[in-house]
Amino acid sequence: MSGAKTETDEARDFLQAHPLFSKLPTEALASLADQVVRIHLTPNQLFTPAQGPKEWLYLIYHGTMGIQGGNSPSISQLGAGELLEMERSLSGHEGESVPVTAKCLDAALIFQIPAKELSALVAKQLSGDEQDERSTGDRLREAMESEQQEYATPAGNFLTLPIRDLIQRKPISMSLDDSIRDVAKSMKKNRVSCMLLLKNGKLAGIVTDRDLRCRVLADGVSRKQPVSKVMTASPLTVDIDAYGFEALMLMSHNNIHHVPVLMKGKPAGVITTTNMQQCQTTSSVFLVGDAYKRNSISGLRMIAKRIPELMSGLVQGGASPHATGQMVTTVTDAINIRLLQMAEKKLGPPPVPYAWMVAGSQGRQEQTAQSDQDNCLVLDNDYDAEKHGDYFKALSEFVCSGMNEAGFVLCPGGIMAQNSDWRQPLKQWKKYFNKWVTEPDPEALMHSCMFFDLRFVHGEPGLAKSLKKHVKKLCSQNRLFLSMLARNSILFQPPLGLFKNLVLIKGGENNKTINLKVNGIIPVVELARVYALPDTPDSVNTRDRLTAAAEGKEVSRCDVLDLKDAFEYIAHTRLRHQARQIEAGKAPTNFLPVSELSLFERNHLKDAFTQIQDMQSALQRRYNI
User: Fold this and answer.
1) Which side of the chain, N or C, has fewer Cβ within a 10 Å radius?
2) Do both 497 and 444 map to the same domain?
3) Report field, pTM of the whole predicted structure over 0.85
4) Shared-domain flag, residues 458 and 503
5) CA distances (Å), 332 to each of 288, 294, 404, 451, in order?
């Protein structure tokens, strides 16, 4: 039949779409496709390479192959578009190599490609200065941006737009000496919900329609009084060159609905929640505000049930993993704080000051739609167990059980304030860290890894600051502990086999998947913690820790920035996977079926895992592990 594709046409089209061959000229591709040998395999058939394995390159056209090298018990699975290398050098052992056993897991077609021909074509191409010199980080960053653009909905533009593009009108302002009546009249005339108040041309305060209702009408304040009597002085602001995401975070964290915008210190406009009501990503602001209004655990549970929808909307809107994690965590924090407020209302004021601290993904502000709870209480040193113990036991049990009822399950390891071990005065917490750092046994390392990610949420911030200061001093003086922590960090390995192939979970309900959290996210979290502790223990967010490490002298700036991009790409892949599950009405998980990934995505995921592996190796050399 005229027009039907020949086998050579099919091979050419496949090679042209493959990242390894896509840059070759059309004539070169046609020549290479004409020399392809097609090898058909049946299920369970062992693959035996042609004579002289180095003379050939094997590319899987379709089907699945399982490979095993040397004495390794692990079996890696390869799919369409992946290279089947029958002999590879051992990493770190120049001149040594091991053979590969390959078995067809389902019907497969292998393209056998002449290696010498390909080498000549590639050499010719590189001589024309076509070589890709981008770093791993550059490639991963471009890949993530490409995927975000493909997946994003128009609503997500808010996150990445500069504030200057979101301002809808010039600022309306008056003097803080003007009367409340005149300000209210001007707000009505200009149809605005707030008024910026100036002193000598600079922002001194803001008054909103809510202020007029609550601070004037409700309290019977005379409208002849100057507006400075009821304004919010020194309001939180954003710079005009900031992004929508920054304004959104400011609103979410502080439960406010109006943010003045400054340009060179002077008012340039106002961003309000009204600006964002058409944008899916703004729901974090409204969920936080709603949480503070709730007076029951069932009401807070309704807020928590909307977190998956929020996360899915953020992903669809093109939000970065960093932004998504912060916004989701902001809602969790609000639920946490509201439960503490409800507990204090029920039990009365706390007898001594306390700091409620969170750890884990909430502490690092990296939560997704699937999270448990990790928290503790740091109590003032005036705490007396006999006098105050019952109060703080009741408070912590109310909050932890309330979080559990809201959907944040109890920590399997018991790292919660309802456990008396993690409800202690500041002096005891300092003793804990002294022991963990100076006697780093396995249990101490487990606890320190968790509690080095502590972040203050509610109560007396001075207690948290004092503990952080103590930890910083300890870590800067103990190189042995950092060495033990580094050794512990490499226990979490990316899912790569001997030949840099993805190693999948075998059997069970998660068969043929990879665990993106345990084998992708956690290894970078552990590395970043080791980098941060000597100099910047106050940073707990992984991205922030890596950014800080890039400015230090302990690690190569280029390497650590590539690691940050690898972390972002893995987190991005995880979020997209969970968003797809949410859209399909399923519970989000960390187990990604590789069948969901395109060849483009698989290759970049391998790049990200390889970067983690390289940085773990560098850490081993640095600490002589």
Assistant:
1) N
2) no
3) no
4) no
5) 9, 14, 12, 19
